[in-house]
Amino acid sequence: MSAPYAKLPAWADYGLIPLINLFVAFVVAGFVVLLVGENPLRAAVILVEGAFGKGTGIAFTLFYATTFIFTGLSVAVAAHCGLFNIGTEGQAYIAGLGIAIVCLSFDSTLPWWLTFPLAIIAAAAVGALWALIPAYLQAKRGSHIVITTIMFNFIAASIMVYLLVGPLKPAASQAPQTRNFLAGAELPKLNWIIELFGAKIRSAPLNVTFLLALVMAFLVWLLIWRTKLGYEMRTYGHSPKAARYAGISETRIIITAMMISGGLAGMMALNPVMGDQHNVAIDFVSGAGFVGIAVALMGRLHPVGIVLAAILFGMLYQGGAELAFEMPAISRDMIVIIQGLVILFAGALEHMFRPYIQALFASFSPRSVGMEAVKGKGA
Amino acid sequence: MAQAAIELIGINKSFGAVRANRDINLEIGRGTIHGIVGENGAGKSTLMSILYGFYQADSGEIRVGGQPASIKTPNDAIALGIGMVHQHFMLVDNFTVLENVILGAESDALLKKSIAKARSELERLEREYGLEVDPDAVIEELPVGLQQRVEILKALYRGAEILILDEPTGVLTPAEADHLFRILGQLKDQGKTVVLITHKLREIMAITDTVSVMRQGTMVATRETRKTTVEELAELMVGRRVLLRVEKGEAEAGAVKLAVKNLTVRDTRGVTMVDDISFDIRAGEIVGIAGVAGNGQSELLEAISGIRRAVSGSVMLDGKPIDLTGAADPGELRDRGLAHVPEDRHHVGLVLAFEENENSILGYHDDPRYLKGPFLNIDAIRNDARDKIAKYDIRPADCRLKTANFSGGNQQKIVLAREMEQDPGVLIVGQPTRGVDVGAIEFIHKRLIAMRDQGKAVLVVSVELDEIRSLSDRILVMFAGRIVGERGPEATEGELGLLMAGIEHQEAAE
């Protein structure tokens, strides 16, 4: 009775099913909009137009997407190794410290293209070190990674609050944040790319970190599917027993995977800190780490899927803000509900429609679902 | 034939795109023992699950005692007098026999009355069918043979007239199996109907009245047992002629390749599973370890292959020691020429979610042949996998297919190809043909003997006595963590069976 499902063609598996799930999520969200007395179709139009209608909207969508690509990749790398890194939030937050140190030290002396690589290294290193402790505890002491990474989120938050109201705050300032960075730590915008296509942009924070995110997505793909390390991580992720049998060290693989995951989470901080706010402020991560879990799940742990899912969530963020502005009855909480529904249908109920679609495929063309290949299953 | 107890008419069942049962017709006579045989995945378990209400058939009709029946849940089945003894027992380990028997059949809110009623009923059943079990014994303290009796009692207590047993002898010693068959005989004499699902043809021949053969989801034949032969049944199961016993020449044993000395292994709970075991394996011989499952064979294999730490003892590979109590890991042992085909291919030997070619380097992924710096050499890996697929006739011949989509026999061939093609000096194999179809068994046995003839030292651990007897040049019998006897391949099944049950322990030691 193993694997009662036959396999679907890849385009249905990775394209059709997520789209159906997404569609259902929006239909249910539409009912909620109806419930608060607004027109769901108009809401949908505002949402999509807000995200993609104008150049500014697109730039904002991609700015948010950049953040989610990093956190999504972070969660995915750990997940391929069978580890649920819930600590992306804290790892990104604490990485702000590394970025702050680099930027505050060098922004008056170095140009951005020298500060940026240093800040990347600092952000990744701090994020990785923050993941190292839970990883070590899991590998050596068996402390569950979910529990420890959640707790490390709180520790990171407390440390950052302490630093931002104390040592890192300029003496004269009332705001719990560092001083604003100088030009040497401000990343160039990418708005001109969108303007190339003729769209107008007033001001939007889309910056070169977006390109870094795409590069990291490619490198993660390379790591997971093309390197020995990725092979070992996947082996451990699917079956710790098989990894033991294959002579893969449990301690080494858990620590390595978690540090890579933490490093990616740390890089997320570059986007808002150096690309947008130009300072490190309290709570600048604001839940992006948790959204990363949804992005990774929805993207089926594949970098291409993660980039697409991140853009979808970027759209929900940007379009949602427009929606809250245009329709007074819909507050930001409503956007959280829509996001929740997307997570519910695309993540948790991912396989809800699968059997029906498989039956459908089987009845139309048995060959496409590999009938011969799965002979001898199901008993 | 007597009046039918059960009739299945035109049963169809699909899982997604897989048709597990197609158009099954079956009639089971009242008061008979009816065997159902077939390879793994032939659809036997699915069919019985439909009968017992775990699954619903997509189409078709079930009649019980001539009346059309609608069986939607196991409770419906029980109400119709159908009882099932599962392959994996459904007992609460820390409950007594009595508590397990009434579980789900309690008649009052307070247990006292139910228990009193059950006790007298249980005593009657035990007398009637020779099913002696102490009603107050705790399940986890009972040997498996007795646990199985509790399962049978559970079914009878619920008024079962028709008893389905799924692979009942997998965990039993030959003596326990004989006792079970006597019980089944008594049940039959009392007018009960027994359906026996198994892949062991010998059992079918020994106790059934009629036998039905399934292949790839269809019912291919039903025969009266005394009018058929093992050969005919095997051929029906596989769809072609099968050699049931491998032919092999004399062993030419050479130098000692692997020497195990005073090895002791404990499991995670700290229970000693392998107790001070010593033996040698020479080049060019197959040593078989026989024993009932759970007598320390698994732990022995895991220790020798470096997966599980040993507590004490030494192991010499090619005359050089390996530190099984400390630093040695499976990777190091592989480098030194010890290949291991693990018992549990689904969780240990393979990663089912991987493509076939990814599994064909598992454990050898450090080999420079498969690497380009830190990167996998995808072309080399896939070409290598294609070579192995051709050489070992792995089907379907697609190295990009997900491993879970191969049948049990082909999965086992993937593991064997990987381990054998590394040209190891020592090959240790756990349950070489568990869950493997008859056709592939023949192939695997031939390969193992070919390895022996190339001068490799081969250690085979199997709970299938037939397999041990037909493959081994020397047979070691394990009982309760110790080797209780060594015999040649000519040893009779009865002799080995007694050793496996630990009965001749004293005599064997002399």
Quick tags:
heterodimer; A: 379 residues; ABC transporter involved in vitamin B12 uptake, BtuC; 16 helices; disordered N terminus; disordered C terminus; B: 510 residues; Rossmann fold; six-stranded mixed β-sheet; 18 helices; globular
Describe this structure as you would to a colleague.
The complex is a heterodimer of chains A (379) and B (510). With 379 residues, chain A is mainly alpha-helical. Chain A has 16 helices and no strands. Chain A has helices at 10-35, 40-52, 55-80, 88-106, 112-141, 145-165, 191-196, 209-226, 228-238, 240-245, 250-268, 270-277, 288-298, 303-326, 332-348, 354-364. The termini of chain A are close together. Residues 1-5 and 370-379 of chain A have low confidence and may be disordered. Chain B is built from 18 helices and 22 strands. Chain B has two domains: 4-238, Rossmann fold, CATH 3.40.50.300; 256-349 and 426-509, Rossmann fold (3-Layer(aba) Sandwich), CATH 3.40.50. Chain B is α/β, with parallel strands linked by helices and 510 residues long. Chain B has helices at residues 44-51, 74-79, 97-102, 111-129, 144-157, 174-189, 201-207, 230-238, 297-304, 330-335, 345-349, 356-359, 378-391, 408-420, 438-453, 465-471, 493-500, 505-509; strands spanning 4-15, 18-29, 33-38, 59-64, 67-69, 82-85, 162-166, 193-198, 210-215, 218-224, 256-266, 272-282, 285-290, 312-317, 320-322, 338-341, 371-372, 375-376, 426-430, 457-461, 474-479, 482-487. The termini of chain B are far apart. At the A-B interface, helix 9, helix 10 and helix 16 of A face helix 1, helix 10, helix 11 and strand 18 of B.
